[in-house]
Each structure stands twice: as C-alpha cells, then as structure tokens.
Design goal:
The complex is a heterodimer of chains A (140) and B (172).
Chain A (H helix, E strand, L loop, with lengths): L2 E13 L6 E6 L2 E3 L6 E13 L9 E8 L7 E7 L5 E13 L3 E9 L2 E11 L15
Parallel strand pairs in A: 3-9
Antiparallel strand pairs in A: 1-2, 1-4, 4-7, 5-6, 5-8, 8-9
Chain B lengths: L11 H7 L5 H10 L1 H11 L5 H12 L12 H10 L5 H11 L8 H13 L3 E9 L29 H9 L1
Helix pairs in contact in B: 2-7, 3-5, 5-7, 6-7
Classes of the chains: A mainly beta (140), B mainly alpha (172).
C-alpha cells in the first residue's frame, strides 16, 4: 500500500531542475473575506508525497483531492492517477479560482483509492477579523 | 552533423574511460563520474540540448546497427542513459524504458546499464503535475451587434454586388 509522507496546500511550488528538490511557498492557513464581495483564491497548489512498498510497483493508484468550501457538505473532487513504475511520487495539483463567500473551514482532503489520508484546513474569516496590516492576502 | 556536447558520448575519450568494463553496475558508476556525461546531463536539463537533437543523435547511433555485428559505439547509448537517469522528463523515461527492454546480442551492455539506471530512478520521487479550474470558466457574454445610426434595417440592406458583376453591368 502507498504511504502518505506529507500533504500541504500552498500558494506556489518550485522544483529545482538539477536536484529535483521541491520548494513550497506560502502555506495557506487563513483567508479573510471582504464585505459584500466574493473572495477568490487565485491559485492553490496541493502537494502530497507518496511512498509505495516494493510490491506495489505495478498497482494502480488514484489520488483524489477533494475541496469543500465553508457550508458545503459535499466537496468537489479533483482526481489524478499515479503512473506505474516508481516507488515515490509527488502529486502537485494546482486549482485555480476558488470562490469563497462565507466564513468557516475550507477543507482540502486527499484520498487514495477512495480512502481519506489527510486533510489541510484553511480558516476563512469573516471580514471584521481581517488584520489591519494584512496585505497581499490570498484573496484577489 | 555535429551534436555539441553529445559528441563526447562517441569520442575516444569515453572509450578510454569505459575500457573493457563488462559489469553494467560498474559501468554506470564509471559513466556517472565522466565529465562529458555530466556535461550532457546539464546541457539537457538547462535546455541547451533539446529533445529532438537527442533523438536525432540516438537515430544516428543506431544507423550503425547491423545484425550479427556488435554495435561499435555501444558505450554512447549507455552513457546517454546515465545522463538521463535522474531527469524528470517523459523523454528520459521513454528512452530508459525502451533501451532497457532491448534484447539483442549486438547490444548487451547498454540495455543492462539502462536497467540499472531505472532501478535507481525508481527510488527517486516522480512529480505528477496537474492544474484545473475550480469551476468552469463562465462563457463570455454574447455580443449583440447594434446597427449604425441611419443604417437601413437589416431586411432593407441593398443586395451585395461583386466587383466583376459591377464591371459587367457598366460595360453592357
């Protein structure tokens, strides 16, 4: 079975072409709503790292990123298949333009072959909580 | 045709380094340390050498293949396999997989080196990347053409006359 090493949702990712080292920047933890507007997170990148056992090299694995916005009971799925032949995989899933119009928990859940593996929760704050000096927030 | 840094892979210098190594794992380690192989790796990673150029180079190498005769530049495909070993591209995967799958008496060591490279590559993470929109992009609003002020209604527009018809009407 594949084992999840880590799962994080951030604003951007870069990979070193020489070393294949990955850099995650801007881990998303809080989003602040704006009065009378729908806030849109322009881009999130969900990164998961997987390690397969030696016997799983020829097994099909499908990961699904499920995004549940505040107030939603069912999330929106973004499936992705892992190609065969490797012991380790990084799934890097970018999702563009997530609209938010109410406070609560914005949940990013990753599933492997339908089984939940990890969740990254972002707190969506009401407009009055917005810090005075908050600039460059993920909202657009 | 000159292939730049790839030319090293069929140079006498490489043949000298490789010598008479018969073990694939030892040959892989020897090639990993060869400066020319490292240069090829860097050139491909940094885009100084493109995938079509490498494909053409490989085709040129394989033109020398003759059934019943040992491939003269067999260290070249092996060295290229080592150069591509850790490159996170589909081309590198394709090259290594196809070379590793060859079973010819004329080419013994290069496929074996490719198999060693695949074994090592298998342990490193592969990046699977995908991007999607959360919601489908909304359709752009339909534009409605408004007639120019003073223009006749659409039904009263004069019939279109092509230039050659006009010329014919003028001459007749």
């Amino acid at each position: 079975m594949a084992r999840l090493e880590y799962f994080l949702v951030c604003r951007s990712v870069s990979t070193d072409v020489d070393t294949n080292e990955i850099t995650l920047s801007g881990v998303i933890e809080d989003v602040f709503l704006v009065p009378d507007e729908v806030v849109i997170i322009p881009k999130v990148v969900a990164v998961s790292s997987w390690t397969l056992s030696p016997g799983d090299l020829e097994t099909d694995f499908q990961t699904i990123l499920v995004i549940s916005r505040p107030g939603e009971t069912t999330g929106k799925p973004f499936p992705m298949n892992l190609s065969k032949g490797r012991r380790r995989y990084r799934t890097i899933q970018g999702v563009l333009s997530i609209p938010l119009d109410q406070p609560g928990d914005l949940k990013f859940q990753v599933l492997l072959n339908g089984e939940p593996q990890a969740t990254h929760t972002v707190t969506v704050h009401p407009p009055d909580v917005r810090p005075r000096e908050a600039t460059g927030s993920p909202s657009s | 045709m000159n292939f730049g840094v790839l030319e090293y892979l069929r140079s006498d210098e490489l043949h000298r380094i490789v010598g008479f190594t018969t073990s694939a794992s030892v040959l892989r380690r020897v090639l990993q340390k060869a400066e020319g192989v490292i240069a090829v790796d860097k050139a491909i990673r940094r885009g100084e050498m493109t995938e079509p150029e490498v494909r053409t180079f490989v085709s040129t190498l394989m033109e020398a293949f003759e059934p019943g005769k040992r491939l003269p530049d067999e260290s070249a495909p092996a060295a290229l396999a080592v150069a591509l070993e850790h490159q996170p591209t589909d081309f590198a995967e394709e090259y290594l997989t196809r070379l590793a799958g060859l079973r010819y008496a004329e080419m013994g060591i290069a496929p074996a080196v490719a198999r060693e490279c695949l074994k090592s590559r298998c342990l490193l993470p592969k990046n699977e990347v995908r991007t999607a929109r959360y919601a489908p992009r909304p359709a752009p609003p339909r534009t409605t053409l408004t007639p120019c002020p003073g223009a006749p209604p659409n039904g009263d527009a004069p019939p279109r006359v092509d230039s050659h018809e006009r010329k014919y009407a003028e001459t007749s």
